[in-house]
Write a structure and sequence with these properties.
Layout lengths: L2 H13 L9 E11 L9 E11 L3 E4 L2 E8 L3 E10 L22 E12 L2 E10 L8 E8 L2 E2 L4 E12 L1 H8 L3 H7 L9 E13 L4 E11 L2 H4 L8 E12 L1
Antiparallel strand pairs: 1-2, 1-13, 2-3, 3-4, 4-5, 5-6, 6-7, 7-8, 8-10, 9-10, 10-11, 11-12, 12-13
Subcellular location: Cell outer membrane
Keywords: Cell outer membrane, Membrane, Signal
Protein name: MipA/OmpV family protein
Length: 250
């Protein structure tokens, strides 16, 4: 797995928790992240990454996502969105003898829409994307989450969130399925995945050192459904990830 794909994998863990900036603002910084892999005999990942965010009335860039606003106000936003999906499987990166005989699964770009609703009782974010590069032959994924911002004191803010992802059968089967040809070559059982839901919980803590300088710590756990966990490629039924960032508002 090349360095930049690994960087994007960690960035993906934190993208959902990045705060929306005020109009015409740029934030830069760095992060260190940790993520488990769902595949058998993959090393856990610990890497430093750069962080860049930009927000205007019309455009945004947040980590590995970028978009164009169709609607934007204090309560609603609707945007056309493109994001990099770092999911991939490289047989050279596993220590499992059988998995080394499988085909590679590539990362891809996802295009779709992202909607946010904000109120005094919290924020709901939803998104739906399709595989723009067609690596998964029609893969689709969607996400919905609810978070609430607690102002602990003048410096510390806590944002617990719960959510769920949905992957269609083509998306899951591309990354976790084992074809008959692969089964013959590797000795694994053939496996065809269906669509499935991946619930998750997330907790983000933001600490404002100065008006410009902020640190963040995010923790996330995602449960893998049987449509993924039952794959002979997979050894986990859940994934833990975390990241720590320091950002400076320009």
């Amino acid at each position: 797995m090349n360095k930049w794909t690994k960087l994007a994998l960690i960035a993906a863990c934190g993208t959902a928790s990045l705060p929306s900036l005020a109009e015409e603002q740029i934030s830069i910084g760095g992060a260190i992240g940790y993520s488990q892999y769902v595949y058998k005999d993959y090393d856990n990942l610990v890497l430093p990454i750069p962080m860049v965010s930009y927000e205007s009335d019309n455009f945004y860039v947040r980590g590995i996502s970028a978009g164009y606003y169709l609607i934007k106000n204090k309560q609603h936003s609707l945007a056309l969105d493109i994001t990099y999906s770092p999911r991939q499987f490289d047989p050279d990166d596993t220590g499992d003898r059988q998995l080394k005989l499988l085909n590679r699964r590539h990362s891809t770009a996802m295009v779709g829409v992202r909607y946010r609703f904000s109120s005094y009782w919290g924020q709901i974010t939803t998104a739906a994307h399709m595989d723009a590069l067609d690596e998964s032959d029609g893969g689709v994924m969607a996400d919905a989450n609810y978070g609430y911002r607690f102002k602990w004191n003048q410096a510390l803010t806590l944002i617990p969130a719960v959510g769920v992802e949905w992957h269609n059968d083509k998306f899951n089967n591309y990354y976790y399925g084992v074809s008959q040809r692969e089964a013959v070559a590797s000795g694994l059982n053939a496996f065809e995945s269906d669509s499935g839901f991946l619930p998750y919980v997330n907790l983000t803590a933001n600490y404002q050192i100065t008006p410009e300088l902020t640190t963040s710590l995010a923790l996330r756990y995602t449960w893998e459904p049987s449509e993924i966990a039952d794959s002979p490629m997979v050894e986990r039924d859940g994934i833990f990830s975390t990241y720590f960032t320091v950002t400076y508002k320009m």
